[in-house]
Amino acid sequence: MSDPASSHSIPCCLTVRDIRSLVAPWRQAGGRIALVPTMGALHEGHLSLVRQARQQAERVVVSIFVNPAQFAPHEDFSSYPRQLQRDLDLLQTVGIDAVFTPDAAVMYPAGFATTISMTGPAAAGLEDASRPVFFNGVATVVAKLLVQVAPDLAIFGEKDFQQLAVLKQLVLDLDLPVAVQGGPTMREADGLAMSSRNVYLSEPERAIAPALHHVLQNIKAGVAARQAVSPLIATAKTELEQAGFKMDYLVLRDAVTLGEWHGQLQGRLLVAAWLGKTRLIDNIAVDRVDTDRHIKD
User: Fold this and answer.
1) In angstroms, rounded to a whole number, what is the distance separating the alpha carbons of residues 20 and 61?
2) Considering only CA atoms, which of 129, 181, 126 is closest in space to residue 154?
3) What are the chain's domains?
4) Measured by CB atoms within 10 angstroms of the end CB, which terminus of the chain is less buried, N or C?
């Protein structure tokens, strides 16, 4: 157990041995265990996942680990916000049973030589196109966390929708006995999706950022009105670029496979764009439109 939690009642585990020792009697008692993996810098979006976990499990563990394996050399690993004491204060308010805060030496000890390579939804031409190391790093660390904590349920935010699809595929392919569940994206009052990286936005950028969500809503409304998708997306991209965004992607995909959407039951609008030095992502669900014509064109 660790010093960081010395002023809190939440057990804080630093090593695999610590977390396994803590969880073992819970499992013997027959209670359901939920894990909420995070990289810290917690906000209301994370807390909503904890509340969701609490509704479905007797015991809830939150992991806090900024995973170096999912950052490319040019990305923001060194500057990613780290505020453990504040995170613990927030977790205290929602009532969890343990925090697992390993460091890199615990997760990737000397001689570590195994990584997971993902295709399928991890190769959908979305996040993977601009962040080629990302999903292998995410899959590796999440697989380790699932083995270390051995939860019955793991909850991830739908804001990272491709990541959620990747992790569902991971547990399916590796026959891991854990249910992966998504939690709804939490938003600020103006629609901006909550994210730990929002702190990077300058005041003028913060005023512009909600446009990302607004254009998704406009496209969804257009699809519901049976308008062709391609012109809707082209118009939205132009609006975002004129507002100051630099686009990575804005697409409508099948929500299950992340492949092309042709009016399937579940669609997903996904967007990623840079605003200054901050990369923002968002997504919303789109329902099937019953129509005799191909609405993509």
Assistant:
1) 11
2) 181
3) 12-183 (3.40.50.620), 196-285 (3.30.1300.10)
4) C
Q: Is 46 an annotated catalytic residue?
A: yes
The answer, as to whether pTM is greater than 0.90, is yes
Per-residue pLDDT of the chain (297 residues; tens, 9 = 90+): 655 544 568 999 999 999 999 999 999 999 999 999 999 999 999 999 999 999 999 999 999 999 999 998 989 999 899 999 999 999 999 999 999 999 999 999 999 999 999 999 999 999 999 999 999 999 999 999 999 999 999 999 999 999 999 999 999 999 999 999 999 999 999 999 999 999 999 999 999 999 999 999 999 999 999 999 999 999 999 999 999 999 999 999 999 899 998 876 789 999 999 999 999 999 999 987 654 444 555
Q: Which residue in the list 8, 46, 213, 262 is annotated as catalytic?
A: 46
